[in-house]
Amino acid sequence: MTDARQGDWVKVEIDAGVMTLTLARPEKKNALSNAMYGVLADSLEAAEKDPAVRVVIFQADGDSFTAGNDLQDFAAQATGAFTGERHVIRFLKALANATRPLVAAVHGQAVGVGTTMLLHCDLVYVTPDARLTVPFVNLALVPEAASSWLLPARIGHARAYAMFALGEAIDGGTAVAWGIANGSAELSDLRARARAAADQLAKKPLGALTTTKRLMRDAEKIAALMDTEGALFGERLKTAEAREAFMAFMERRPPDFSKVS
Ligand code: COA
Protein backbone atom coordinates (compact mmCIF):
# COMPACT_ATOMS: atom_id res chain seq x y z
CA MET A 1 0.00 0.00 0.00
CA THR A 2 1.26 3.49 -0.79
CA ASP A 3 -0.27 6.68 0.54
CA ALA A 4 1.71 9.63 -0.78
CA ARG A 5 0.35 12.70 0.98
CA GLN A 6 2.15 15.21 -1.19
CA GLY A 7 0.88 18.30 0.60
CA ASP A 8 2.23 16.93 3.84
CA TRP A 9 5.62 15.95 2.47
CA VAL A 10 5.62 12.50 4.06
CA LYS A 11 5.30 9.28 2.03
CA VAL A 12 3.76 6.31 3.80
CA GLU A 13 4.24 2.79 2.41
CA ILE A 14 3.42 -0.62 3.86
CA ASP A 15 5.00 -3.67 2.33
CA ALA A 16 5.71 -7.17 3.68
CA GLY A 17 5.18 -6.19 7.31
CA VAL A 18 7.25 -3.00 7.11
CA MET A 19 5.85 0.54 7.21
CA THR A 20 8.26 3.01 5.61
CA LEU A 21 7.89 6.69 6.43
CA THR A 22 9.86 8.82 3.97
CA LEU A 23 10.36 12.53 4.62
CA ALA A 24 9.90 14.15 1.23
CA ARG A 25 10.40 17.89 1.45
CA PRO A 26 13.94 18.00 0.08
CA GLU A 27 13.85 21.65 -1.02
CA LYS A 28 13.63 22.62 2.67
CA LYS A 29 16.01 19.89 3.86
CA ASN A 30 12.94 17.99 5.11
CA ALA A 31 12.24 20.59 7.80
CA LEU A 32 9.27 19.20 9.72
CA SER A 33 6.09 21.22 9.44
CA ASN A 34 3.17 20.77 11.81
CA ALA A 35 1.30 18.86 9.09
CA MET A 36 4.27 16.51 8.61
CA TYR A 37 4.35 15.76 12.35
CA GLY A 38 0.62 15.06 12.05
CA VAL A 39 1.17 12.44 9.33
CA LEU A 40 4.06 10.87 11.26
CA ALA A 41 1.97 10.70 14.44
CA ASP A 42 -1.07 9.28 12.60
CA SER A 43 1.12 6.66 10.93
CA LEU A 44 2.81 5.52 14.13
CA GLU A 45 -0.55 5.35 15.91
CA ALA A 46 -2.01 3.36 13.01
CA ALA A 47 1.00 1.01 12.99
CA GLU A 48 0.28 0.04 16.59
CA LYS A 49 -3.19 -1.20 15.62
CA ASP A 50 -2.35 -2.74 12.26
CA PRO A 51 -1.34 -6.42 12.25
CA ALA A 52 0.15 -5.82 8.78
CA VAL A 53 2.81 -3.60 10.35
CA ARG A 54 5.54 -5.32 12.37
CA VAL A 55 8.36 -2.77 11.91
CA VAL A 56 8.59 0.94 11.01
CA ILE A 57 11.44 2.56 9.03
CA PHE A 58 12.20 6.29 8.93
CA GLN A 59 14.16 7.55 5.92
CA ALA A 60 14.38 10.71 3.83
CA ASP A 61 14.56 11.93 0.25
CA GLY A 62 17.04 14.60 -0.86
CA ASP A 63 20.40 15.38 0.68
CA SER A 64 19.37 15.40 4.33
CA PHE A 65 17.44 13.37 6.88
CA THR A 66 15.82 16.48 8.33
CA ALA A 67 16.71 20.06 9.29
CA GLY A 68 14.50 19.59 12.34
CA ASN A 69 11.42 21.55 13.23
CA ASP A 70 10.30 24.06 10.60
CA LEU A 71 11.65 27.36 11.94
CA GLN A 72 8.86 29.33 10.29
CA ASP A 73 6.41 27.26 12.33
CA PHE A 74 8.46 27.98 15.46
CA ALA A 75 8.38 31.69 14.63
CA ALA A 76 4.59 31.56 14.21
CA GLN A 77 4.28 29.78 17.57
CA ALA A 78 6.60 32.35 19.17
CA THR A 79 4.48 35.28 18.05
CA GLY A 80 1.15 33.61 18.82
CA ALA A 81 0.24 33.57 15.10
CA PHE A 82 -0.21 29.77 15.34
CA THR A 83 -2.95 28.54 17.65
CA GLY A 84 -3.79 25.00 16.44
CA GLU A 85 -2.71 21.62 17.83
CA ARG A 86 1.06 21.11 17.89
CA HIS A 87 1.24 17.63 16.34
CA VAL A 88 4.89 17.33 17.37
CA ILE A 89 3.69 16.47 20.87
CA ARG A 90 1.57 13.59 19.55
CA PHE A 91 4.47 12.45 17.35
CA LEU A 92 6.92 12.40 20.27
CA LYS A 93 4.44 10.47 22.43
CA ALA A 94 3.85 7.98 19.61
CA LEU A 95 7.62 7.53 19.25
CA ALA A 96 8.02 6.97 22.98
CA ASN A 97 5.08 4.57 23.15
CA ALA A 98 5.83 2.62 19.97
CA THR A 99 5.86 -1.09 20.65
CA ARG A 100 6.83 -1.87 17.06
CA PRO A 101 10.59 -1.82 16.40
CA LEU A 102 11.70 1.49 14.87
CA VAL A 103 14.55 1.55 12.34
CA ALA A 104 16.15 4.74 10.96
CA ALA A 105 18.26 5.38 7.85
CA VAL A 106 20.01 8.73 8.34
CA HIS A 107 22.06 10.73 5.86
CA GLY A 108 23.10 14.36 5.59
CA GLN A 109 21.83 16.76 8.22
CA ALA A 110 19.91 15.38 11.20
CA VAL A 111 19.11 18.49 13.22
CA GLY A 112 17.20 18.73 16.50
CA VAL A 113 14.38 16.21 16.50
CA GLY A 114 16.19 14.56 13.57
CA THR A 115 18.73 13.41 16.13
CA THR A 116 16.61 13.16 19.29
CA MET A 117 14.11 10.85 17.58
CA LEU A 118 16.98 8.41 16.97
CA LEU A 119 17.17 7.90 20.73
CA HIS A 120 13.73 6.24 20.44
CA CYS A 121 14.70 4.08 17.47
CA ASP A 122 15.86 0.51 17.98
CA LEU A 123 18.22 0.19 15.02
CA VAL A 124 19.90 3.22 13.43
CA TYR A 125 22.06 3.26 10.29
CA VAL A 126 23.94 6.38 9.21
CA THR A 127 26.13 7.48 6.34
CA PRO A 128 29.72 8.21 7.41
CA ASP A 129 29.25 11.90 6.54
CA ALA A 130 25.90 12.29 8.29
CA ARG A 131 25.88 15.33 10.57
CA LEU A 132 23.94 15.01 13.81
CA THR A 133 23.22 18.17 15.80
CA VAL A 134 20.95 19.21 18.67
CA PRO A 135 21.45 23.01 18.70
CA PHE A 136 18.59 23.78 21.09
CA VAL A 137 20.52 26.39 23.10
CA ASN A 138 21.58 28.22 19.91
CA LEU A 139 17.85 28.62 19.24
CA ALA A 140 17.22 29.72 22.87
CA LEU A 141 15.28 26.48 23.38
CA VAL A 142 15.76 23.39 25.55
CA PRO A 143 16.13 19.70 24.68
CA GLU A 144 12.98 17.72 23.84
CA ALA A 145 11.89 14.12 23.19
CA ALA A 146 13.29 13.17 26.64
CA SER A 147 16.74 13.83 25.18
CA SER A 148 17.76 15.85 28.24
CA TRP A 149 18.04 12.44 29.92
CA LEU A 150 18.35 9.96 27.03
CA LEU A 151 21.30 11.67 25.29
CA PRO A 152 23.61 12.01 28.34
CA ALA A 153 22.56 8.50 29.38
CA ARG A 154 23.67 7.24 25.96
CA ILE A 155 26.87 9.24 25.36
CA GLY A 156 27.80 10.81 28.72
CA HIS A 157 27.15 14.26 30.16
CA ALA A 158 30.24 16.00 28.74
CA ARG A 159 29.55 15.01 25.14
CA ALA A 160 25.82 15.63 25.42
CA TYR A 161 26.34 19.05 26.97
CA ALA A 162 28.70 20.12 24.18
CA MET A 163 26.10 19.02 21.64
CA PHE A 164 23.21 20.79 23.38
CA ALA A 165 24.95 23.97 24.57
CA LEU A 166 27.68 24.54 21.98
CA GLY A 167 25.72 23.01 19.13
CA GLU A 168 28.65 20.69 18.33
CA ALA A 169 27.97 18.30 15.46
CA ILE A 170 28.98 14.65 15.30
CA ASP A 171 29.46 12.67 12.11
CA GLY A 172 28.14 9.20 11.33
CA GLY A 173 31.31 7.42 12.45
CA THR A 174 31.16 9.18 15.81
CA ALA A 175 27.46 8.36 16.16
CA VAL A 176 28.36 4.68 15.75
CA ALA A 177 31.33 4.92 18.14
CA TRP A 178 29.19 6.67 20.79
CA GLY A 179 26.33 4.18 20.57
CA ILE A 180 23.71 6.38 18.86
CA ALA A 181 23.84 4.28 15.69
CA ASN A 182 24.36 0.59 14.95
CA GLY A 183 26.42 0.96 11.83
CA SER A 184 27.32 3.12 8.87
CA ALA A 185 26.70 2.56 5.18
CA GLU A 186 27.41 4.60 2.09
CA LEU A 187 24.37 6.46 0.79
CA SER A 188 23.91 4.03 -2.09
CA ASP A 189 23.54 1.15 0.42
CA LEU A 190 21.84 2.95 3.29
CA ARG A 191 18.20 2.17 2.55
CA ALA A 192 18.97 -1.45 1.68
CA ARG A 193 20.85 -1.85 4.98
CA ALA A 194 17.92 -0.48 6.98
CA ARG A 195 15.42 -2.52 4.97
CA ALA A 196 17.41 -5.74 5.45
CA ALA A 197 17.40 -5.19 9.20
CA ALA A 198 13.66 -4.39 9.15
CA ASP A 199 12.95 -7.53 7.10
CA GLN A 200 14.84 -9.59 9.65
CA LEU A 201 12.83 -8.05 12.49
CA ALA A 202 9.54 -8.56 10.60
CA LYS A 203 10.14 -12.33 10.74
CA LYS A 204 10.73 -12.40 14.51
CA PRO A 205 7.98 -13.21 17.04
CA LEU A 206 6.26 -9.86 17.60
CA GLY A 207 5.27 -10.67 21.20
CA ALA A 208 8.88 -11.31 22.20
CA LEU A 209 10.07 -8.17 20.39
CA THR A 210 7.41 -6.06 22.07
CA THR A 211 8.17 -7.33 25.55
CA THR A 212 11.93 -7.02 25.05
CA LYS A 213 11.53 -3.41 23.97
CA ARG A 214 9.29 -2.66 26.96
CA LEU A 215 11.87 -4.13 29.33
CA MET A 216 14.64 -2.01 27.78
CA ARG A 217 12.88 1.36 28.18
CA ASP A 218 11.69 3.29 31.23
CA ALA A 219 8.43 4.37 29.60
CA GLU A 220 7.07 6.15 32.69
CA LYS A 221 10.19 8.22 33.14
CA ILE A 222 10.30 9.09 29.43
CA ALA A 223 6.64 10.20 29.45
CA ALA A 224 7.07 12.33 32.58
CA LEU A 225 10.21 13.95 31.20
CA MET A 226 8.54 14.71 27.87
CA ASP A 227 5.79 16.55 29.76
CA THR A 228 8.33 18.58 31.76
CA GLU A 229 10.46 19.36 28.71
CA GLY A 230 7.37 20.16 26.64
CA ALA A 231 6.13 22.75 29.16
CA LEU A 232 9.55 24.44 29.35
CA PHE A 233 9.99 24.27 25.57
CA GLY A 234 6.59 25.92 25.09
CA GLU A 235 7.57 28.72 27.50
CA ARG A 236 10.92 29.23 25.82
CA LEU A 237 9.31 29.45 22.36
CA LYS A 238 7.61 32.67 23.49
CA THR A 239 10.77 34.36 24.83
CA ALA A 240 12.49 37.34 23.22
CA GLU A 241 15.63 35.17 22.99
CA ALA A 242 13.84 32.61 20.84
CA ARG A 243 12.21 35.25 18.63
CA GLU A 244 15.68 36.71 17.99
CA ALA A 245 17.04 33.25 17.09
CA PHE A 246 14.22 32.55 14.61
CA MET A 247 14.40 36.03 13.04
CA ALA A 248 18.17 35.67 12.66
CA PHE A 249 17.75 32.37 10.80
CA MET A 250 15.17 33.84 8.46
CA GLU A 251 17.23 36.99 7.87
CA ARG A 252 20.35 34.83 7.34
CA ARG A 253 22.40 36.64 9.99
CA PRO A 254 23.97 35.56 13.30
CA PRO A 255 21.69 36.10 16.32
CA ASP A 256 22.53 38.86 18.82
CA PHE A 257 21.30 37.74 22.22
CA SER A 258 22.98 40.68 24.01
CA LYS A 259 19.95 42.81 23.11
CA VAL A 260 17.40 40.44 24.60
CA SER A 261 18.97 38.69 27.60
N1 COA B 1 12.92 25.32 8.91
C1 COA B 1 12.48 25.94 7.81
N2 COA B 1 13.22 26.03 6.68
C2 COA B 1 14.43 25.47 6.70
C3 COA B 1 14.94 24.82 7.82
C4 COA B 1 14.12 24.74 8.96
N3 COA B 1 14.50 24.11 10.08
N4 COA B 1 16.18 24.37 7.55
C5 COA B 1 16.43 24.72 6.28
N5 COA B 1 15.37 25.39 5.77
C6 COA B 1 15.25 25.94 4.42
C7 COA B 1 16.13 27.16 4.25
O1 COA B 1 15.48 28.33 4.73
C8 COA B 1 16.31 27.16 2.75
O2 COA B 1 15.14 27.65 2.17
P1 COA B 1 15.23 28.63 0.87
O3 COA B 1 15.95 27.82 -0.18
O4 COA B 1 13.80 28.91 0.53
O5 COA B 1 16.01 29.84 1.32
C9 COA B 1 16.37 25.68 2.42
O6 COA B 1 15.74 25.00 3.50
C10 COA B 1 17.79 25.14 2.31
O7 COA B 1 18.48 25.46 3.51
P2 COA B 1 19.94 26.13 3.54
O8 COA B 1 20.13 26.75 4.90
O9 COA B 1 20.14 27.00 2.36
O10 COA B 1 20.85 24.82 3.40
P3 COA B 1 22.33 24.58 3.93
O11 COA B 1 22.77 23.31 3.30
O12 COA B 1 23.17 25.79 3.75
O13 COA B 1 22.16 24.34 5.52
C11 COA B 1 21.17 23.43 7.50
C12 COA B 1 21.41 23.25 6.00
C13 COA B 1 20.22 22.32 7.95
C14 COA B 1 22.51 23.34 8.25
C15 COA B 1 20.56 24.82 7.75
O14 COA B 1 19.46 25.00 6.85
C16 COA B 1 20.05 25.03 9.15
O15 COA B 1 20.82 25.26 10.07
N6 COA B 1 18.72 24.96 9.32
C17 COA B 1 18.09 25.20 10.60
C18 COA B 1 18.19 23.98 11.48
C19 COA B 1 17.53 24.19 12.81
O16 COA B 1 17.95 25.01 13.60
N7 COA B 1 16.43 23.43 13.05
C20 COA B 1 15.67 23.49 14.25
C21 COA B 1 16.21 22.52 15.24
S1 COA B 1 15.27 22.51 16.75
UniProtKB/TrEMBL annotation:
In its keyword annotation, does this UniProt entry include Isomerase? yes
Its subcellular locations are: Peroxisome
Q: Which UniProt keywords apply?
A: Isomerase, Peroxisome
Do the record's keywords include Isomerase?
A: yes
Pfam families for the chain? ECH_1
| Chief location | other
- For this entry, the protein name equals Enoyl-CoA hydratase
Q: Which organism is it from?
A: Caulobacter segnis
